[in-house]
Design goal:
Blueprint (H helix, E strand, L loop, with lengths): L1 E7 L2 E8 L10 E5 L9 E7 L4 E2 L8 E5 L3 H6 L9 E5 L4 E2 L4 E4 L6 E3 L1 E7 L9 H7 E8 L2 E2 H7 L3 H5 L4 E8 L8 E7 L10 E7 L7 H9 L9 E3 L7 E2 L5 E6 L3 E9 L2
Parallel strand pairs: 6-17, 8-14, 9-20
Antiparallel strand pairs: 1-2, 1-5, 1-14, 2-3, 3-4, 6-7, 10-13, 10-18, 11-12, 11-17, 12-14, 15-16, 15-19, 19-20
């Protein structure tokens, strides 16, 4: 099931996206549900063509917990060792934006980079000191994420808060997919350069698979839950494969994850 949060003429709602994304957005519809998707799914009877609504970030988390160096090749390209335990950091909830929203380049940084990632969305009742069985049950579904990073600030600050925490530095979307096996999903990042001529194909910058994770999503949820309580709606970023690179003004960046969807955002300077 694909669950979206969307804006329409009557306000904001959650809904179930119907149709096959491979056929293009033109054939997709979104069926409104009552209230929040964490309860029993009840349809209101209202339906819109996807083209007639605006997709928002699929969830508004109380916190975003991210994992660094969870792919060996990415650790190597950063000149770092593979961690013996998951390397955790936080992104503020104010960094979250949705599909087609704009990533804003802050003037403090001269090197902002993309990091395509599979994101875990926590469902009820959450997770606190969860073993692996409980952690698996706490996973509501998955979405795409771009862990946007000011790489020069990450190096100069050593710790990650400023480099990872700017407004718009955590695009999520386009929806939450439930009921899939995340053990072997292709993860890719494509960048269409600024001012590219019509018909130009996007450059594939990152191409990996979740099978290459050092710590799988269930292990990560369990590990994090022994440090902090994960609440329903919280998001866990599971790390990025190799190939991270710069984003500049005018670029269009797409994170594509098999069986999940495509998250696309433009990059512009801070107004």
């Amino acid at each position: 099931m694909r669950i979206a949060r969307f804006a329409h003429a009557g306000g904001m709602s959650f809904g179930v996206v119907e149709g096959e994304p491979e056929a293009g957005a033109e054939g997709l519809t979104v069926a409104q549900i009552e209230g929040h998707p964490f309860g029993e799914i009840r349809f209101t009877g209202e339906r819109w063509a996807l083209a007639d609504v605006r997709l928002l970030s699929p969830i508004l988390p109380s916190k975003v917990v991210a994992i660094g160096r969870n792919y060996a090749e990415h650790a190597a390209e950063m000149g770092s060792e593979v961690p013996a335990e998951p390397l955790m950091f936080l992104k503020p909830s104010t960094s979250v934006i949705g599909p087609d929203d704009v990533v804003r380049l802050p003037p403090q940084s001269k090197q902002v980079e993309h990091e395509a990632e599979l994101a875990v969305v926590i469902g009820p009742p959450g997770a606190r000191r969860a073993d692996k069985a409980a952690a698996a049950k706490a996973i509501f579904g998955y979405t795409c994420a771009n862990d946007v990073t000011a790489r020069d600030l990450q190096r100069s600050d050593v710790q990650f808060t400023r480099a990872k925490g700017f407004d718009s530095f955590c695009p999520l979307g386009p929806w939450i997919v439930t009921g899939i096996d995340a053990a072997d999903l292709e993860v890719r990042c494509e960048v269409l350069p600024a001012n590219a001529p019509a018909g130009t194909e996007a450059e594939v910058r990152q191409l990996g698979s979740t099978r290459d994770m050092i710590f799988d999503p269930v292990t990560l949820v369990s590990y994090v839950s022994h440090v902090m309580t994960l609440l329903p709606g919280d998001v866990l970023l599971t790390g990025t494969p190799a190939g991270v690179g710069p984003m500049v003004e005018g670029d269009t960046v797409s994170v594509r994850i098999a069986q999940v969807g495509t998250l696309t955002n433009r990059v512009l300077a801070l107004e």
